[in-house]
Each structure stands twice: as C-alpha cells, then as structure tokens.
Amino acid sequence: MRAAFGTTFDVEGVYLNTPSIGVPPRPVVDAVAASVAAWGRAETAPAGFDEAVASARRSYAALVGMPETAVASGTVVSALVALVAGALPARSRVLVAEREFTSVTFPFAAAGHEVVEVPVAALPEQARGADVVAVSVVASADGALVDLAALRAAVGPETLVVLDATQCLGWLPADVSWADAVVAAGYKWLLSPRGAAWMAVSDRLAARLVPAQAGWYAGGWDAIYGLPLRLHDDARRFDLSPAWLAQVGAAIALPWLAGLDAGVVHDHAVGLANRLRAGLGMPPGDSAIVSVRREGAAERLAAAGIRAAARDGAARLGFHLHNTADDADAALEALSGGAAAAR
Q1: Which terminus of the chain has a lower count of CB atoms within 10 Å, N or C?
Q2: How many domains does the chain have?
Q3: pTM value?
Q4: How far apart are CA 134 and CA 163, in angstroms?
Q5: Residue range(s) defining the domain that contains residue 103
Q6: Tens digits of per-residue pLDDT, 88-140?
C-alpha cells in the first residue's frame, strides 16, 4: 500500500509501466468492484450509469480545457480518430510523426488518405502544406514531446490538428485547447479501466464529422427505437454506447486528477524521471517517460522484478503519482549493475 497525492495505491514492488497500463488509486478499484458486485446481485440498470459517463465527460473537458459540450465519449482512440478520417475529402494529406502510434495513423491510412511521416521535430515546419496534422503530444515509444507552441504557430488556417493526449493527460500541463481534436484513452495516465476514451472537437471539425457509428446512446433515451434519426445536438451525437464498468472507474479517476495541482504532478513525475536519467549519465529531459537504449536493459529490469516495457528496441519506463525516489533508484541499480548513489 502506498499513499500519494491524498489517496492510496495497492502497489507492491516497483511498477514503472504506466505508459502501458496505469495503476488506479484505491477509490477507483473500490468503485469498480462495488459496481461489479451490484451487477452480480442484479441491482444495476442501464440508466444508473449515466451519471458516471457525464462525470467523466465533464472532467475530461476540464483536463483539456475545452467545453463539456465538445466532448464525445467512446471506447478506444482509433474509433474516435476514424470519425475524423472519414470526414476528410478523398486523398487528403495527413502529416504524422515518424514511428507514431498506429491508433493515430492507421485510421487515416485505412481511409485511403496520403499519410506522410516526418521526424517529430520537423512537424511544425512542414505543417502548413498539410490538410491534417495528427500527432501524439507525448510519443508512446520514447516519451518525446511535440513542440505544441511551434506547431500552433506554423499550421495554416485550413489545416486541422488532431492531438492524441493519451500519454500526456494526467501528468503534463499543456495547452491543447486550440486543437481541432484532442483524443485520449483512459487506461494509462488517466488511471481508468480500459474501455473508456474521449475526443474533444472544435466547432469547425464537429460541423464536418458524420456520426457514422451512431447508436441509441448518440440520441439518448428517446432514441432507442425506430426512425427518424434523432441525435444529440452537441458532441454527444458522436458518442459510442459506453462500456459501463470502465466509465464507473473513470468517473472517480478523472475528477480526482482534474483537481490536482498540475504543476506539482508534473514536477513529481518528471523529477523522478530525471533522477534516473542523471544516474545513467543521460541529460535531463522534460518527459515522465524514459527510454533506455542499453544492451539487455529490459531483461535486467525484469530480472530485478521491476515492471517496465520494451518498446522500439529500448526499455521504456514511466513515472507517475504512485512512484517514489526509491523506485527510480531501484531502476538505476538494476540498469547500472551497482547500488544507486544517494541523492
């Protein structure tokens, strides 16, 4: 059991794999467990989950700095990005970062658009000629940050900007409210069960989107049988029917995260990442994700019982709310083969 940021986490050992799966605080676990137990007792009803969906939507809006009415609720990032891909003219030019997470790139490629990969540092300078720029704010593979200010300044007035905030929301204070779409999955840094995702959309993009995946939830309780088509008049018309238990967890996790001091969270996570970087002789960085390209790094971490990931030929570690200096030092000891110096 660990106490951090006013809550507790049932973490044993050293867990540095939040970029793959986040560790929920105890209240999130308890809420989901209680909902499962109520389901088992036949005490649930569909309408009973509506407030959880609404609470998670409100908090996502707060986290990205966009209106609640602009937020669509879904289950996975790729399905939400597919709505954008489907709204574009044929063979639109979509600029993405090299080695971008495929939930961002595949929907555009599958829709037949021209998807052009460039180094993430080159995105701003090449953005003006694109119909769409689609990029992760923080790269999944190595934690690299896109220069949001430079990108915002560089895009032309007709260029749509789609930001995947999956690897940044929950630890990185960043202004993403100017983008046309800000999409994120909840099961990593937002510490929610898998099956909850959201996309906030600008007015100009919302006017172009077709609710091609619309079911009854996109219209509400008055739209469960028969025609004509009747959908919500805000971004809820793009909703997918929710994965209820995932939304129950998100309704606890997201309001709590939105209420934390974002600067303090950032300094905690990046400070621990830089503690590890310093011990390994790496320059300081601005990311909570550390990519270690050393022979056998992932294997040494695993042998020490430290849970991390292997991505793109490197060991990938992520530091979040439950992590401590002891975690960073344990990773350093495993990676360097010696005791971490006290700092």
Answers
A1: N
A2: 2
A3: 0.96
A4: 6
A5: 45-259
A6: 999 999 999 999 999 999 999 999 999 999 999 999 999 988 999 999 999 99
